[in-house]
Design goal:
The complex is a heterodimer. Chain A is of the alpha/beta class. In chain A, the strands form three sheets. In chain A, strands 3-2-1-4-5-6 form a six-stranded parallel β-sheet, sandwiched between helices. In chain A, helix 2 links the parallel strand 2 and strand 3. Chain B is elongated, with a radius of gyration of 25 Å. Chain B is α/β, with parallel strands linked by helices. In chain B, strand 2, helix 3 and strand 3 form a beta-alpha-beta unit. Chain B contains 16 helices and twelve strands. Strand 12 of chain A pairs antiparallel with strand 6 of chain B, so a sheet runs across the interface.
Chain lengths: 407, 399
C-alpha cells in the first residue's frame, strides 16, 4: 500500500530482492537493519503496541534516527494468530535478525531450530550480550555494560583515570556493522548450496575483539595497557593532542606524524624560538617531552579560531581538524555540504513529515543507494507485507487488526 | 592448545572461501580486509619492497621493532598472503594488473593511483570487478586532500567532541577504534557489491569515506541536533562531553571499593528502587512527586545521586555479581589483564592461537560465530613478501 507521498526507488540497489525479518530493538540491531534497508533489502520490522515504550516508540527521536528504510508490521506475539503468521513469515525470510534475551524467540516458536526445519536456507543472526551459553550467558547488558566489561571503558580516558570511556554507544554500532558483514558473508556462502546457517554475534566478544593489539601485547609481552589520553599508546608522535582555541569549549586536534610535518608546523607557527629546542628535533624527543610541547602548542592555538588552525595546518600538509560537534557537522562542515551527506527522507513520517537524515556513508557507482524511506508507525505496512509475503487478502489483515493480533 | 594449522585442518571452509581479494588498504581499510580474510576469502596483501609500512606499528613482540614483530600488524593483517610488488616499476605494475585480473574484489586506499591504474578503465576491462576505494573524505570536495590520521579523523568526524570529561580535553578513542569503524564499512561495501555481481555480473566502484563513516556512528549526536526540542531535559542542540554519563542520564561509571563499575537503574526503575528500599538507602525516592512523568528527568538525576552514594560503600566484585543476579545491567570496569582471564570467554573457548615467528600465542577470537562456515585463524602470520613466489607463479609470472 502506498503511503502518503510514497515513491519507489528508481534504480537497482545491491540487496534488491533480499527479505529480512527484523526482531531487533534499541540500537545495535536497528542500525544493522537500517543499513540492510538502505542497501535495498526489504526489511520488515516486527513491532507491537504492547511493546511501545521509550526507544520502541515510533515517535521517539531515537527510534526515528535508527529505523528508516524499513517497513513496519505489527504483531502482538502474545496472540496465537500472530505467532502463526510470524512462523509463516519466517519460512519466507532470507534473513532473520533478533536481539532479544536468550530464549524469547524460542518461546514464540521462532528459534533457529524450528525455523530451519521449514526454511533450511534461512540466515538467522542472534545478537546476545554475553553469548548463548557460558556462566555469564544470563547477564543483562547494554552498550555501556559491554564497554565496561570488555576493557573499552578502562582504556579510553586520561592516564590515572578509568571512569571516562567512550561517550556514546560505540560497541552497538560496531555490533550492527559486523551483523551486516556476517549476513552478507552468509548470503555469499549460501550461493550454490542454498543452505543457510545460524550466526551468533555476542556483543561482548565483539567488543573484546576490538582491542586486538592491546590483548596480544598482554599475552606476548605481559603488559596490561593503560589509557593514554590523546597520545598514541604504542607509537611516537607529537604534538598529538586536542588543543583549546578561541571561543567557548572550542578545540582543534593536531597530529604530527613525522619530522617533515613537524618542520611544516614550525613554519605555520612562524618558527617560534621555543621550537628549535633540540629536545624537539626527533619524534622520540617530542614524545618524551610532550607535556612541555603541548603547553607551547596550546599557547599558539588558544588565540585562534579552531577553523583557522585547521586551514593553516592542512594547507601546509600538517594533519589538523576542528573537534566538530553535531552543529559543526551539519552546519559548518564544507566537506559534508559538498558531499550532500545530510538530506531528507524520500517519504514522510506520519507525525513528523520528511525527516533529516545522514546518508549511508558508501557511494556505489552502479547501484546508488539514494532512496530512504521515513520510519513507519507500528502496523503501517501490515496489508502490503502480509499480501506480498504471504498472499493474505485485505479482509484477513483487517480481521487480525480487529482481533488485536496484528496490532 | 591447537596450532593455527591444525585448527584449520579441522575446520570446514569459511563463508567467503573462493572469494579473491587484492588488499591495497592502509590503516583506514585494513580492518575491512581482515574481516574478509578471517571469513575465508583468499586475501593477498600487496607490500612495497621494504615491507608494508604498517609493520612499523607498535606494540612489538619483546618491544623490539622488526619486520615480523608488530603485534598490531599480526592482528590487522591476519590470514593474509603477502606479496611484494614494486608498483613504481613497469614489471610491478604488470604484476599488480595480473593479480587484479584474477580478483573479485580490490580494496584500495591510494596504491592504484600510485601504480597509475585508472579505476574506471580497470572496471571497463574487467566489468565484474568490485573496487572499494577507502579515503579520509571521499574523492571529491574541498577537504579531499586533507590529512586525517586517527586523532584528526575522530575530531572531524564528531567522535572526540562527545568523548572525554568536563575537566579533560575532548578525547580520542583508544587504539584504532575510529579506523575499525571505516574498516567495517569497507567489508560491507565489498560484500554488498559482490552480491550485486552474483545477481547481475556487474561490478562497480564503491567509495567509503572515513569522515562519513564516523559521523554515521554517533548514537545520539545527530538525534540531539535534529530533535532536541522533543527530548526531555535537552536545553540545546549539542550535548557537551560529560565523562561516562550517557545522553539519557541513566548510565554512569561510579566508584566502588576496589574498582569502578558502570551503574544504571534501567531497564526497570521499579526493580532498582525495590533493591534500594531493601537496603534501606532509598532516601527520598519514594516521594510522590517522582511518580509524575513530568518529573522523570529529576527522578533520573536523583536516582543516580542516591546510587552514587550507595555504590561508594560496596566492594566492586561481589556487588557486580549481586547486581547481575538481579538482572541489573551493571558493568564492572575491567582492565585488559582481567579481560584476558574472563571466565565467560574461557567457558566459550573464545581465544584462538596466533602463530607468530614459529611460536604460538593466545590472541583475540571471532567477533561472530557461524554454525556452518566458521571464522578461523587459518594461516600463520607471514614475513614481508613471504608468499611472493607462490603468488607470482599463480599469475603465470616466470622470471
Amino acid at each position: 500500500m502506498a503511503g502518503p507521498g510514497r515513491q519507489e526507488a528508481s534504480g537497482r540497489r545491491p540487496l534488491d530482492g533480499i527479505r529480512v525479518l527484523d526482531f531487533t530493538h534499541v540500537l545495535a540491531g536497528p542500525h544493522a537493519t537500517r543499513i540492510l534497508g538502505d542497501l535495498g533489502a526489504d526489511v520488515v520490522k516486527i513491532s507491537s503496541e504492547r511493546r511501545r515504550s521509550l526507544t520502541n516508540d515510533p515517535d521517539h527521536p531515537y527510534f526515528l534516527t535508527w529505523n528508516r528504510s524499513k517497513r513496519a508490521l505489527a504483531l502482538d506475539l502474545t496472540h496465537e494468530d500472530a505467532r502463526k503468521v510470524c512462523r509463516r513469515l519466517c519460512e519466507k525470510a532470507d534473513v532473520i535478525i533478533e536481539n532479544f534475551s536468550v530464549g524469547v524467540m524460542e518461546r514464540w516458536d521462532v528459534g533457529y531450530e524450528s525455523v530451519r526445519a521449514s526454511n533450511p536456507s534461512v540466515i538467522y543472526l542472534s545478537m546476545p550480550g554475553m553469548g548463548r551459553d557460558g556462566p555469564w550467558a544470563g547477564f543483562v547488558t547494554f552498550a555501556p555494560t559491554i564497554h565496561a566489561l570488555s576493557g573499552l571503558t578502562y582504556l579510553t580516558g586520561v592516564p590515572g583515570r578509568h571512569d571516562i570511556g567512550i561517550g556514546f554507544s560505540y560497541n552497538d554500532h560496531q555490533a550492527g556493522l559486523h551483523a551486516v558483514v556476517a549476513v552478507l558473508a552468509a548470503l555469499e556462502a549460501r550461493r550454490g548450496t542454498g543452505v543457510g546457517q545460524m550466526i551468533e554475534l555476542a556483543q561482548f566478544e565483539l567488543g573484546v575483539n576490538l582491542l586486538g593489539p592491546a590483548l596480544l601485547d598482554y599475552f606476548v609481552n605481559g603488559r596490561s595497557a593503560e589509557p593514554t589520553g590523546n597520545r598514541l599508546p604504542y607509537d611516537d608522535a607529537a604534538p598529538h593532542n586536542c588543543y583549546p582555541c578561541a571561543g567557548e569549549d572550542r578545540w582543534v586536534a593536531i597530529a604530527v606524524m613525522n619530522d617533515e610535518q613537524w618542520q611544516a608546523l614550525q613554519r605555520v607557527m612562524g618558527k617560534p624560538g621555543w621550537a628549535i629546542d633540540e629536545r624537539y628535533h626527533s619524534a622520540t624527543g617530542r614524545s618524551g617531552n610532550a607535556l612541555a610541547l603541548d603547553a607551547h602548542m596550546a599557547e599558539w592555538t588558544s588565540e585562534m579560531a579552531a577553523e583557522r588552525v585547521q586551514a593553516l595546518c592542512q594547507a601546509a600538509g600538517v594533519p589538523a581538524g576542528v573537534v566538530q560537534t553535531g552543529v559543526d557537522l551539519t552546519e559548518h562542515d564544507a566537506q559534508m555540504a559538498h558531499r550532500e551527506f545530510f538530506r531528507k527522507t524520500d517519504t514522510e513520517h506520519a507525525n513528523a513529515g520528511a525527516l533529516p537524515i545522514d546518508r549511508l556513508p558508501l557511494r556505489f557507482s552502479r547501484t546508488p543507494t539514494d532512496y530512504y524511506t521515513a520510519p513507519a508507525l507500528n502496523g503501517d505496512d501490515n496489508a502490503a507485507v502480509l499480501q506480498e509475503w504471504l498472499g493474505m487478502d485485505e479482509a484477513e489483515v483487517r480481521d487480525g487488526e480487529t482481533s488485536g493480533a496484528f496490532r | 592448545m591447537a596450532t593455527a594449522a591444525s585448527q584449520a585442518a579441522e575446520q570446514p571452509e569459511g563463508a567467503l572461501h573462493g572469494v579473491r581479494v587484492v588488499d591495497l588498504a592502509d590503516e583506514r581499510g585494513i580492518y575491512g580486509t581482515k574481516l574478509l580474510a578471517d571469513l575465508g576469502a583468499d586475501v593477498i596483501r600487496v607490500e612495497p619492497p621494504g615491507g608494508d609500512p604498517l609493520r612499523g606499528r607498535g606494540p612489538f613482540k619483546d618491544d623490539v621493532p622488526g619486520p615480523t614483530n608488530s603485534l598490531w600488524h599480526a592482528f590487522f593483517a591476519s590470514n593474509r598472503r603477502f606479496a611484494t610488488v614494486d608498483v613504481t616499476s613497469v614489471a610491478g605494475r604488470e604484476q599488480l594488473g595480473r593479480l587484479i585480473g584474477r580478483a573479485d574484489v580490490v580494496v584500495d586506499s591510494g596504491m592504484l593511483a600510485e601504480a597509475q591504474i585508472d579505476v574506471d578503465e580497470l572496471i571497463e576491462r574487467q566489468p565484474s570487478l568490485v573496487v572499494v576505494s577507502v579515503s579520509s573524505f571521499g574523492a571529491t570536495g574541498p577537504w579531499r586532500d586533507y590529512l586525517a590520521p586517527d586523532l584528526v579523523a575522530g575530531a572531524l568526524g564528531g567522535v572526540s567532541a562527545t568523548t572525554g570529561d568536563v575537566d579533560t580535553p575532548p578525547l580520542k578513542l583508544f587504539g584504532e577504534l575510529n579506523f575499525m569503524m571505516s574498516g567495517s564499512y569497507v567489508a560491507i561495501a565489498a560484500l554488498a557489491a559482490l552480491r550485486h555481481v552474483r545477481e547481475s555480473g556487474e561490478g562497480q566502484v564503491v567509495e567509503a569515506s572515513v569522515h562519513e563513516a564516523l559521523a554515521s556512528c554517533l548514537e545520539h549526536v545527530l538525534m540531539w541536533y535534529w530533535h532536541s526540542d522533543s527530548i526531555r531535559g535537552a536545553t540545546a542542540n549539542v550535548l557537551p562531553r560529560r565523562g561516562s554519563l550517557h545522553w539519557s542520564g541513566a548510565y554512569q561509571v561510579m566508584q566502588a571499593k576496589g574498582g569502578s563499575i558502570m551503574v544504571t537503574p534501567t531497564p526497570d526503575f521499579q526493580k532498582q528502587l525495590a533493591w534500594l528500599v531493601e537496603e534501606g538507602v532509598q532516601e527520598d525516592l519514594l516521594d510522590e512527586k517522582y511518580s509524575d512523568p513530568e518529573n522523570v528527568v529529576e527522578l533520573i538525576q536523583r536516582t543516580m545521586d542516591v546510587l552514587r552514594q550507595w555504590v561508594a560503600k560496596q566492594e566492586v566484585e561481589p556487588f557486580f555479581f549481586a547486581a547481575q543476579a538481579r538482572h541489573a545491567p551493571y558493568g564492572w570496569v575491567m582492565p585488559p589483564e582481567r579481560v584476558a582471564e574472563n571466565p565467560q570467554l574461557e567457558a566459550r573457548d573464545w581465544w584462538v592461537d596466533y602463530e607468530l615467528g614459529g611460536t604460538s600465542v593466545r590472541g583475540p577470537g571471532p567477533p561472530y560465530r557461524f554454525s556452518e562456515t566458521p571464522w578461523s585463524m587459518r594461516r600463520p602470520y607471514g614475513a614481508p613478501g613471504g608468499d611472493t613466489e607462490a603468488v607470482l607463479a599463480e599469475i603465470g609470472w616466470d622470471d
